[in-house]
């Protein structure tokens, strides 16, 4: 009988611990949200001396604090870039860099602490009338998004035809 009391006490204590010890923890709501905005226009095409550059599906992704609406990470510019060789020579594509400017034509600089990745590196040779297509994934300054300052982007294509050559093309862009 004494053994049954111990078992009964053990079962009761187990149940009490089970009911009160296993309370559900509170689940916190996310503190940040990822927002994707399309660039206007989302598609651009510019012909240079030796090439044709086509940009498609351009969008900016930001991570914002839900309560303060502050951008907490360096925004990203993503899309597709297609480079077509329009010269009679082969082009050795080295890199594509992106620069950002406001409506007045002043450069929009990255703030201290922002991640700066404004170049896509290539190591591709394109024959005449051939094209190469890849994704564009670079960072964009917070100020270009936060204050809606972006007036245009410059795409700088570094390539080697016969002698080394660099060419800059300008795309008018806005974030909405």
CATH T-level topology: Immunoglobulin-like
What Rg do the Cα atoms give? 28 Å
The DSSP helix count reads: 2
Largest sheet, in brief, is: 6 strands, antiparallel
- CATH class equals Mainly Beta
Number of folding domains?
A: 1
Measured by DSSP, the beta-strand proportion falls in over 45%
Order of helices and strands: HEEEEEEEHEEE
Query: Stretches where pLDDT falls below 50 for ≥5 residues?
Result: none
Gross morphology: elongated
CATH architecture: Sandwich
Q: Kindly state the mean pLDDT as a whole number? A: 82
Number of strands: 10
* Measured distance between first and last alpha carbons: 79 Å
Helical proportion? 10-25%
Structural class: mainly beta
Describe this structure in words.
The protein has 176 residues and is mainly β. It has a single domain (41-175), classed as Immunoglobulin-like. The chain contains 2 helices and 10 strands, in the order αβββββββαβββ. The chain has helices spanning 2-21, 142-146, and strands at 32-40, 44-47, 51-65, 76-85, 91-102, 119-126, 131-139, 150-160, 165-172, 174-175. Strands 1, 2, 3, 4, 7 and 10 form a 6-stranded antiparallel beta sheet that branches. A 4-stranded antiparallel beta sheet has the order 6-5-8-9. Strand 2 and strand 3 (51-65) form a beta hairpin. 16% of the residues are buried.
SSE arrangement:
Blueprint: H1 2-21, E1 32-40, E2 44-47, E3 51-65, E4 76-85, E5 91-102, E6 119-126, E7 131-139, H2 142-146, E8 150-160, E9 165-172, E10 174-175
Antiparallel strand pairs: 1-3, 1-10, 2-3, 3-4, 4-7, 5-6, 5-8, 8-9
